Amino acid sequence: MNFMPGPVKRRYDATGRRQAAARTRTAILDAARQLFAERGYTATPMTAVAGRAGVALDTVYATVGRKPELARLLIETAISGTDQAIPAEQRDYVQAIQAAPDAKTKIAIYAAAITAIAPRMALVLGIIQQAAAEPELAALRTEIAERRAANMRRFVADLATAAPLRLDPGQAADIVWATNSAELYQLLVGQRGWTPQRYEQFLSDTWQRLLLAD
């Protein structure tokens, strides 16, 4: 009888494949972001995205989906600051706000987070603005707006646990919703030449004065 051990099977390592897939996904997102900024969402075919990314059209569809799904992914990743969509409750700054000991610190953390998010959102804001007439994009625009409003209500509710509010919580949430928009960042930083630091301080000061009771 032969008791010699058989060949040892090597465990398959998928690390290289995952890294290649991640690079492809990043290339597609970067290409779409550039082309949508240059040509507009409506005028950019998916074939152009594939060409700019250096991949086949089928690869684009398999990696990110159809054009509206690509638009959603660009917006979600602009919000999260990563290459993946991250639910609000799992974001680092949201957890930091919830753990902060006082209202002013909560507001300062949120102002810093919005200042970091706003320029990324400004780059993709035109996607929704330019394609608002398309049903799927119009629905996405409504969804993002409603989700933002819900997140503002959660922020204000958390703020109210640390300090009395000057306003009704609904009004306070609406103020935060309006003033943390990428449009305001575009106006003050993009058009009026404010520095991001000045913008962050403006948000923090404004929210403290408008939201917190004396």
Structural descriptors:
0% strand; mainly alpha; 214 residues; 10 helices; Arc Repressor Mutant, subunit A
Task: Describe what this molecule looks like in 3D.
- This protein is mostly helical and 214 residues long.
- It folds into two domains: 14-65, Arc Repressor Mutant, subunit A; 87-211.
- It is 72% helix and 0% strand.
- The chain contains ten helices and no strands.
- Helix 1 (15-39) crosses helix 2.
- The radius of gyration is 22 Å and the shape is globular.
- The N and C termini lie far apart (90 Å).
- The mean pLDDT is 87.
What is the averaged pLDDT score?
A: 87
**Element-by-element helix/strand order:** HHHHHHHHHH
Distance between the termini: 90 Å
Number of domains: 2
Low-confidence runs (pLDDT<50, min 5 residues)? none
Q: Outline of this structure?
A:
The chain is mostly helical.
Secondary structure elements and their pairing?
Layout: H1 15-39, H2 46-53, H3 57-64, H4 67-80, H5 92-99, H6 103-130, H7 135-160, H8 169-179, H9 182-191, H10 196-211
Helix pairs in contact: 1-2, 4-6, 5-6, 6-7, 6-9, 6-10, 7-8, 8-10
